[in-house]
Give the backbone structure.
Amino acid sequence: MRRYGKHTDEDDIRVRPGRRGSRPRTRIRPKHEDAAEGFVVTVDRGRITTLVAGRTVFAMKARELGRKGVVVGDRVAVVGDLSGERDTLARIVRVEERTSVLRRSADDDDPYERVVVANADQLAIVTALADPEPRPRLIDRCLVAAYDAGLDPLLVLTKADLAPADPLLERYAPLGVRAVAARHDAPVAAVRELLEGRITAFVGHSGVGKTTLVNALVPARSRATGHVNTVTGRGRHTTTSALAVPLPDDTGWVIDTPGVRSFGLHHVDPGRVIQAFPDLEPGTAQCPRACSHDEPECALDAWVADGHADPARLESLRRLLATRERREGD
């Protein structure tokens, strides 16, 4: 049966568009020059909470970003409804260049790296002195990740009222890592002083009191805390997503991250770790190619023997590099 008469006009003919629509595709992306600056404070199942001009604005990632991820600490360009009112949703159209990226992999054999936070300049490695017992291997791994990302490490020892801090402090003294001890029943003024003017990411395994410490630092933004299992000696995950919160009087930022049971270093190039040891790095000039810095031909032994660096520093470097080859808990 004929659909049209004998005398049809072009306007009478219906043209079905292709699968991708009738608009021609283009590689030109909008510049969004009028986009507002935002700071990502948390990401939860694709919903991104940003701070824009002092307002909390909920947003989603724009399609033009493709597979580029958005993480806590990112500085972003936001368009759309920026009022922050209930049931409004803006779009993140650009992620600005990051000054630092803290990464980890699930395991040393896992090639997929996960970005923990962006644009931090300090990494607070939180560990309890007791209940649960300290895990130096995990601390070493976090230190390697900090050096690789170019972050200043800070060792925060919690539950100092339950066990002495000196043994652990002596272990890390050769590295020159700043450290501070916090008690359950004492103010956190000493910790806060080391965070002022910085963007500090907090990492640590579950049960060490990381979130409790963040709650004490920023009482207005309290998060749920858990307890340590008396049988396994391990904590229960209560923080499920990273959250950035400002310190009182806007003197800095702290980023509370979920507790970790391992810190994979598959992504770390051991050659970058040596850059955190300026007293040892010049001694590598005479090392053989692809030197692991823990072999008979390593030139660092002669460098230290000539008095250019403390032997304890070389021992610490080699311990950290060895963590790259061992799984946490081995």
Remarks:
- The longest strand covers residues 36-44.
- Residues 35 and 289 are 48 Å apart (CA to CA).
- The chain is about 15% helix and 25% strand.
